[in-house]
Amino acid sequence: MNPVCRRCGHCKHLTPEYKKLGAAVEADPALASRLVIAKVDADAHNPLGSRFDVQGFPTIKFFPRGKPATKDSAQDYNGGRSSDAMLAFLKGKLEGDKGFARVAELDAIAEKAGKAAKDDLKKLVGELEEAAKKLEGDAKANGELYVKLAKKALDKGSEYFATERARLERMISSGGVAANKVSEMAAKSSVLGGFLGEPIAAPAAEEEEAEEEPEEDEDDADEVEEGEEKDEE
């Protein structure tokens, strides 16, 4: 999210790059299904600035999915202001988010199930069910997903985990799936990573130091000063 002020010269410099970022995300179904690029007029929606602790302009904040949109969950983006730098940051966040539905308490059993013969798989499904019963909150819902996927593999064999993961990723990348279905598919794909023995991705590295902001030109500076004088009146 990019709160901007109409009187801010730096905001005007950022606008073309932010538009490029939005176009790049929209053109890639895999990104468009998981990201929302938003711009907010802070003059017209001043309460949002206070709500999300906006201290200056332009401000760019990243809101991770699965958490309420609050000033505590919002992450300030302090990296480069080019569309390429912002896009790289977002791709890094998505890569680190692949394990969002994983449950550490179940992953060890799931990895064994992903390699097990049919007779052994039945026993491991029972172990998953017992372990899932002890979970609470979001972990409980995701635990039920582990059990559901493991039971499907009883009929289709352990190769089901890889083929189903590939199918889900193709559908998500196609861009032809409703947003609510994309969320369900992404959760399944995340859990399937546990059966395939994939490590949970480490959090994306901190973004590089911000590029030096361009200086405001004289017209922009005059506009800011005029706005400030009006505010004082």
UniProtKB/TrEMBL annotation:
Listed CDD domains: ERp29c
Presence of keyword Magnesium: no
Entry keywords, A to Z: Disulfide bond, Isomerase, Redox-active center
Gene3D superfamilies: Endoplasmic reticulum resident protein 29, C-terminal domain (1.20.1150.12), Glutaredoxin (3.40.30.10)
EC supergroup of this enzyme: isomerase
Organism: Monoraphidium neglectum
UniProt cross-references to Pfam families, sorted A to Z: ERp29, Thioredoxin
Stored InterPro entries: ERp29_C, ERp29_C_sf, PDI, Thioredoxin-like_sf, Thioredoxin_domain
Disordered: annotated segments: 197-233
Protein name stated in the entry: protein disulfide-isomerase
Residue intervals of the Thioredoxin domain: 1-95
Cellular component GO terms, alphabetical: endoplasmic reticulum
EC number: 5.3.4.1
Comp. bias regions, Acidic residues: 205-233
PROSITE patterns recorded: THIOREDOXIN_2
Domain of life: Eukaryota
GO MF annotations in UniProt: protein disulfide isomerase activity
Record field: catalytic activity: Catalyzes the rearrangement of -S-S- bonds in proteins
Biological processes, Gene Ontology terms: protein folding
